[in-house]
Give the backbone structure.
Amino acid sequence: MKNFTTVLKIAPAFLLASSVIHAQTQDTLTKEKKIEEVVLIGYGKQKKSDLTGSITSVSAKDFNGGAVSAGQLIQGKTPGVQITNNSGAPGSGTKIRIRGTSSLSGENSPLIVIDGVPQDFVGMNGVSDPLSLINPNDIETFDILKDASATAIYGNRASNGVILITTKKGTSGKFKLNFSTVTSVSTKMGNVDVLTAQEFRDFVNTYAPASYKTKLGNADTNWQDQIYQAAWGTDNNVAFSGGIKGLPYRLSIGYNEQNGIVKSNSFRRTSVGLNLSPKFFDNHLSVNVNAKGTFTDNRFVDGGVIKAATYFDPTQPVYSGNSKYGGYYEWLDSGSATGYNVNANSNPLGMIEGVRDVSSVIRGLGNIQLDYKFHFLPDLHFNVNAGYDYTKSEGHKFKDGNLRQGYADKGSSNFYSMEKNNKLLETYFNYVKNINAINTGVDITAGYAYQDFRLNIPGAVTYRGTGINAQDLDFQTQNTLVSFYGRAIFTVANKYIISGSVRRDGSSRFFNGTTDNLWGVFPGVSLAWKLNEESFIKNISAISTLKLRAGWGKTGQQELPALGVNGNKPNNYPAFASYNPSYPGAGYQFGNEFYFMFRPTNYNPNLTWETTTTKNIGLDYGFAKNRITGSIDLFRKDTKDLLVYADEPAGGLSNASWQNVGDMKNQGIEGSITVIPVKNEKTTWEVSFNATHYKPVITKLKDRADEYFNMEVGGIEGGSGNRIQAHAVGYAPNAFWVYQQVYDTGGKPVDGAYVDRNGDGVINTKDMYYYKSTTPDAILGFSTKVSHKNWDFALSARAVLGNYVYNNMASNSSLQSASTNEYLQNVFSTAPEYKFSVPQYKSDIYVENASFLRLDNINVGYNFGEIFSKGSNLKVYGMAQNVFVITKYTGVDPEVFGGIDNGYYQMPRIYSLGFNFQF
């Protein structure tokens, strides 16, 4: 693995920066031009007032402060968009959902397009979230396409919406240098509510047999306090921008270092970004060059550390008093070959010291876009966009043979790597003309797109001190998309706007030996009526904007869950008959050797796209000279031919395969309002609020299935193969499938007693019911900002109402925790109250209301103005993130993606001090 250093990473960029600065000082200064506000719509742009689809734009001035990943910039800022942090680990990124879910097993994340380059949906070994490789400080705007009339131009990857990310560009004019630096301290929100040492002693002495009472220790150890720390971080960015002899440029360099609140966890990112946007041939040829490079170093913490700290016996000391297992206290078993109890929890501090898991990742993302305005017909443009996205990761996971984590293997060392090469070529013609004779504007686009995704994962080798090494198999794959698309927009009398688009996509993913299922067609159409331009409204001074929108469109879904332990191996050939090597552990023995054999892979030659049809009607409004603005949208999404991994009749290569087996509908409403109560020379106050409600329901699964049929999902910790969620007709996806708990007259749960819901006198799976789900009733966002003279203040908050979480940390606790497998395990605070003799994993008592109100961000700043020289500026600000959470949920954090809380790495509370210098 390469050992990159910060100096080596950024030195070339600083050398380039010094050259640019020198050239800039020799150039003639020109005045910057003010650009009219427009919104990207995919292969083009449109004035915000002329939009016909449901599109929201969020610019840098409205971003959340302190974001370390792109998704955090717009968390809570726009209706219909729910952004959930993957975890509190630095670099872990976010999960984004637009108007809920459209698929059961396919991808539910939106398509991300960065400066015109669509991203893939495949993760990277050694990276928690690929979007964390993009420096948030380089981002200028997010344009979020939500309904199918807007997203259909992106065809088979647009069922979950599209997010167009535009990074900051250079502008002709004066040389500018901007430098910002932020220092932060992160702390934990709290601890999982388990018993203290004395409470645990009382618990064991009350419920455990005599032989287990003797296992109690004399210490008083808070294991969660032992693994957490106050973690410092820094984020530094410098940007140079201006124009050199007609060459606008922007060069940015950033360094972000974040240490996790769990000891040893860290994330470091160095980034370089360059944009050049010259024009040639009397401005007939526009060139836009974007190049971004990031260098990321990660140190991960073992995922089991938090669970171990939760459950480890608080009466035991951290250290054993001898040198075995690194000196850490571990549960012993004299009959075990290793000497320790293999069933017992590991010492969490021993886990942190015993495993070193690090990675380095390089990413280069660049494209060059040429836009030529024909000399003989200036209204006609020809656009070419060529892009390349390269990512390579290298990692090393080492387990110390002196500690429990590596003791059985006498130590182990695993080196892994992964490489992605994505290529893009897009060309389109665009004709824009105002036809005065009929008072109509015409905007017509027709184009072609080619995108190729290649991935290579060399077989990783695990070296063990025992000499019994393991070799994974090499993995290579490729997926290609070819597309033809067109769009026409007609604006009549600046009042009536009609837009229609169609895209024909071909995907190698559905190749079955023929071209029968390769191609899909995805149309979209939308209308808008600018009521404020009508004579009967135009003279009403109170109404600034009033526009009615309606749209219909059809989009596709081709993404299947990736294969492999890390989920980074795309399932690119689910419809094609093929042979693949057997997995490690499934070799064929000849003599004393085991050999990998080629075996047929299960496939479905009839597999094809999921298709989502969306209907949308919306109203955009503005009153009091647009001091009050907002929008309201009603929508419905109907998904057909759901991609699901489902059982199939005997006789094939497997008992299950990928199939198109079901339908789902999702309907809802969303709205936003922004009010500017105060606006004068000294003071401006702005308040924004947004709300979203949607309700997804599965309307069909497998044909000829009975009323009890469902598809279990949502694996939990405890037992073997237990799952707590299911897909079923008539219910929301991922509904909790549980037994209804019986309570005594005092309101206490009865151990092992459940309601006989069908009244047949037998308690079995036919008595289980679908109780709540992870789908919230409402998602709310609130933000406000105030500026007064040189002071400014801002805050943002979110509320999620009616969502439920399964508390797996609590369900794993019972009286059995003090009487099984020759060790003691701490329990959740409810265990002494419920008094369940054994874990009752399927009880609805553990499905908890996780509604919450979270104050995400609050900051205050002061602008000192020109204290260095004319044109310079200094701003100092303080900020707090994740300030508080109000919730009834009994776990640490109610915002758990997927709805199952099992050792969740909690979001840190962050306090920051920042300085921004501009020259």
Confidence is low (pLDDT under 50) at residues 1-36. Residues 325 and 403 are 4 Å apart (CA to CA). The chain has eleven helices and 49 strands. Residues 6-26 form the longest helix (21 residues).
